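Re: the 264-residue chain
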Amino acid sequence: MERLRHLARAGSLEHAVLVQEGAAALAALGDDRAALLLACRRLLERHGGSGPLWSLCARMLCSDDPRSEAWACTEEIDADDSAAHLASELLPDATVVVLGWPELAAPALACRGDLRVLVVDAPGDGVEVVRWLRQRGVDAVEVPAAGVAAAVAGADQIVLEADAVGPNEVLAVVGSVAAAAVAAHVGAPVWVVAGAGRVLPPALWVDVVLRQRPPAPWLATREVVALALAGAVVRPDGLFRLPAVLPPDCPLAPELLSSSPGGG
């Protein structure tokens, strides 16, 4: 329980860390369904924008063997090939725009020595990402958030990383809507990276979006982007041209919804 409390109180964490730590803590509650549900709800109250965490909780709650399901989720996260697929599919000698610190896209960009990467500083991660990429021999440039339109207008490709994916939208770092809209205007291709566990059933997706609403819209660190603005989605099993049907990575667990009895 102390491990769960620590994870619930933690600040922004990578999705892989959330799933790995969450699985280890939740597995200890596998024999107590009520305690497992309560722990899942508490984690999602704090990290409700993480598609992989939603998938972990839903899969454990819907499984006859929650412990085994927890380890299966961590194995899928560890084996996620989305970065490798992105690295192999990006255009040669391209100028690529990314925003913030993309957990899967950054390693993919680091694999390619022919790219020029424009990193939009949203929300404040640009300096660290640029430093990380340069240390790996990548031609990376920091772009202030106000320069996102100019960066996109001069780019060959825009890569957005999804925290969660719904039927027609994705949750991504703030600035992604502007980047995708400008890309559509100038005809630059937009690809969405949606790693393991990030595609959710419609009802869970609605709850994710509801939980992301700050007191004022301009205070948001994440925003919802229409998939119609993208041309392709990169998943653990390859690149899919849109429109494409993206099956959910987890079942619907109604007890996790805010509107369910005992919900948040």
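The chain has a mean pLDDT of 92.
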